[in-house]
Automatic annotation (TrEMBL):
Sequence ranges assigned to domain Radical SAM core in this UniProt record: 181-347
Co-factor(s): [4Fe-4S] cluster
UniProt keyword annotations, A-Z: 4Fe-4S, Iron, Iron-sulfur, Metal-binding, S-adenosyl-L-methionine
Lineage: Bacteria, Bacillati, Bacillota, Bacilli, Bacillales
InterPro entries named in the record: Aldolase_TIM, Organic_radical-activating, rSAM, rSAM_sf
GO molecular function, one term: 4 iron, 4 sulfur cluster binding
Keyword presence, Iron: yes
Protein name per the record: Radical SAM protein
PANTHER family registered for this protein in UniProt: PYRUVATE FORMATE-LYASE 1-ACTIVATING ENZYME, PYRUVATE FORMATE-LYASE-ACTIVATING ENZYME
Length: 418
């Protein structure tokens, strides 16, 4: 389990003596055999800028910064895998924030790379290696030719070809879960927003937010093109937009038009669910799936990260419960971070939240953030920190009727059908 590090030209090495370590919150910790799995297909190794690699001397157990101009290395995991630890490192320039990605501890072991993570879902559909870029380009050309006046298809073509976003790529491949962004506005000011950051935030958004208001016709065209198979999903609320429910009128009308023409597939929304009245209208229009983004079921932690405007966590809970009671298959997009999500008080609060709302699915999603900036933002731990692996075990035991996964699922088929 040897330390992995890189030089200033991003050549990657494994150390002959020092062991690799991870971070849980602010603490550097030893990595154990049970914490590690082989580097998954579709994962990417990246250097952590402005850092010094840190390893453990196996003879003394001491944490040792690696001398010389060498920086720490982490892994970016595909969907389907939940990280247990952030890479071990020390910053050489604390004024510089990491790019907004979810970094996972990586080591060299038995002739290969291993990561401190576990598989929490079937990764096949979201493995970048299963997305043929040539097929995506041909899909873009075909749909842009078919709908030359649809601005949304033009916007999504940049997401698919420029950013290689898998959800927008699916829109052009017409498979699985495809995206249909609708909103340029948001009712939250998320600290780690990946589509819009204030100039003085210290972060650079990896994506560009939608800059126009789509028409109902544009939205409906994309939805009808995608909903062609029983298992297809079309989703409002993408990484390149704000909060979709701010455009509830457009969404409601589009859903009604689509469902007047086809019952095929599933209509999903990825949302913060803070605008309860808007969410009720969207549910009543014929929504099938709802995925609510959250980082915590504790108000102080939630508010520190999301910085909600005109709503509270209580509104989120009301929206979820309403949707569940109306037969919508509800889930949360749970933004998780080692040393925070696995705190005793966080676990207890989330179990209560899941029970009260009738959640069907918890999607474990690695939070894309600079670790120190995030830890400085949120409340300090109040109780024991159990570890991410133990957190998953507790959820499975305490919430036996809730699926633990990593991405949107369709509801299980019952004897009476959908």
């Amino acid at each position: 389990m040897h330390l992995v590090y890189a030089d200033d030209k991003d050549n990657v090495y494994d150390h002959s003596e020092l062991y690799g370590v991870g971070r849980s919150g602010d603490d550097l910790v030893e990595l154990l055999e049970d914490d590690l799995i082989p580097l998954p297909p579709g994962a990417t190794l990246v250097g952590l800028p402005n850092t010094r690699a840190v390893g453990m001397d196996p003879k003394t157990g001491k944490m040792v910064p690696l001398p010389g101009n060498y920086h720490a290395v982490g892994a970016l995991l595909p969907q389907g895998y939940t990280r247990y630890y952030v890479p071990g490192y020390s910053k050489t320039d604390k004024s510089q924030a990491f790019p907004l990605f979810g970094y996972t501890a990586v080591v060299w072991k038995d002739g290969g790379f291993y990561v401190a993570a576990g598989q929490t879902d079937n990764p096949e559909k979201w493995n970048p290696e299963n997305c043929d870029r040539g097929e995506v380009r041909r899909g873009v050309e075909r749909l842009l030719e078919k709908y030359p006046d649809n601005r949304l298809y033009r916007h999504l073509s940049n997401c698919a070809l420029g950013y290689e976003c898998l959800t927008s790529s699916n829109t052009f491949l017409q498979r699985w879960e495809g995206g249909v962004p609708v909103s340029f506005a948001c009712n939250a000011g998320c600290f780690g927003c990946i589509s819009e950051q204030p100039e003085d935030s210290g972060f650079v958004s990896p994506q560009t937010r939608l800059q126009f208001k789509p028409t109902v016709d544009e939205v409906t065209e994309i939805m009808l093109e995608h909903l062609r198979t029983p298992e297809s999903i079309i989703s409002f609320g993408q990484g390149c937009e704000g909060e979709p429910s701010t455009q509830a009128k457009t969404i409601v009308e589009a859903i009604k038009r689509v469902r007047a023409q086809t019952s095929m597939g599933y209509i999903n929304i990825n949302t913060n669910a803070g605008l309860t009245d808007h969410m009720r209208a969207i549910v009543d229009a014929g929504l099938d799936l709802m995925r609510v983004s959250t980082i915590s079921a504790l108000d102080d932690h939630y508010n520190a990260y999301y910085r909600p405007r005109g709503y509270t966590l209580a509104n989120v809970e009301k929206s979820l419960k309403y949707a569940t009671d109306k037969g919508v298959y509800t889930s949360i997009n749970y933004l998780v971070f080692p040393g925070v999500t696995d705190r005793e008080e966080e676990i207890e609060a989330m179990i209560g939240f899941a029970r009260r709302t009738g959640l069907k699915l918890i999607q474990m999603r690695n939070l894309n953030i600079d670790p120190e900036a995030y830890l400085n933002l949120i409340p300090k731990a109040q109780g024991e920190i159990y570890g991410m692996k133990t957190l998953l075990e507790i959820f499975r035991e305490e919430l036996p009727d809730v699926v633990i996964g990593s991405y949107t699922h369709i509801p299980p088929v019952t004897q009476s059908g959908r």
